[in-house]
Amino acid sequence: MKELTTKDGQEFTIRQPTADDAQNIIDYSKMLFASTDQVLTTLEEYTISVQQERTWITNFNDDPNSIIFIAEMQHRIAGLLFFVGGSKKKNAHTGELGVSVHPAFQGLSIGRQLLDSLIQWAQNNPAIEKIFLNVFATNQKAIRLYKDLGFREEGRFIKAIKQSDGEYVDVLQMYIMTKK
Quick check: 171 and 135 in contact, CB under 8 A? Predict the structure, then answer.
């Protein structure tokens, strides 16, 4: 567990979740999916049970090349990051991340700290050489943050997303190398 401070001086922690965090992660995820159109999953599609969530957490905790971090502030989840390492021999040196921050805690450097925690973890993990992510091209705040941390664009999926209002959105794939 890491004790950290937001850019406005509030204390928060980053830690790996346990299976006992399953309901809180479900509640956080439902809130997130209901609050933004900048994520792939819709609230209606998110039908995971507590047992399924417990299994998901346990599987991550048992995989040396995957990890979940949660940021906690004011006794609730303020952010969540997961990283899935490649499952095949030829892509085991890579992995994809997903990260989100609770709308009430955005702009406080929690997302940056979650990403920093992942990058440090990956630098210390002998298998992981490359982290990649997908981000909606309309999510300019996230793209600025990723670029500030050293991520580079490596591809664009044209009209990969069709929003509920019919608007198409491109998806950018970005990456960072973790070994020099």
Answer: yes
Q: What is the CA radius of gyration of the chain?
A: 16
| Ranges assigned E (strand) in 74-122 | 76-85, 94-101
Percent of the chain with pLDDT over 90: 94
Rounded distance, CA 82 to CA 68, Å? Answer: 4
Whether residue 43 lies inside any domain: the answer is yes
Residue 77 lies in a domain: yes
Q: What is the mean pLDDT of each run of 10 residues along the chain (180 residues)?
A: 91 96 97 92 93 97 97 95 96 97 94 97 97 97 97 98 96 95
pLDDT digits (tens, 9 = 90+) for 30-45: 999 999 999 999 899 9
Structure tokens at 128: 């992981």
Domain count for the chain: 1
The C-alpha torsion from 158 through 29 and 105 to 119, rounded to 10°, is -60
The conformational region for residue 29 under phi > 0 = left, psi -120 to 50 = alpha, else beta, is alpha
Q: pTM of whole model > 0.70?
A: yes
The Cα-based distances of 127 to 47, 56, 79, 174 in angstroms read: 33, 21, 26, 19
Q: Domain range holding 78?
A: 2-129
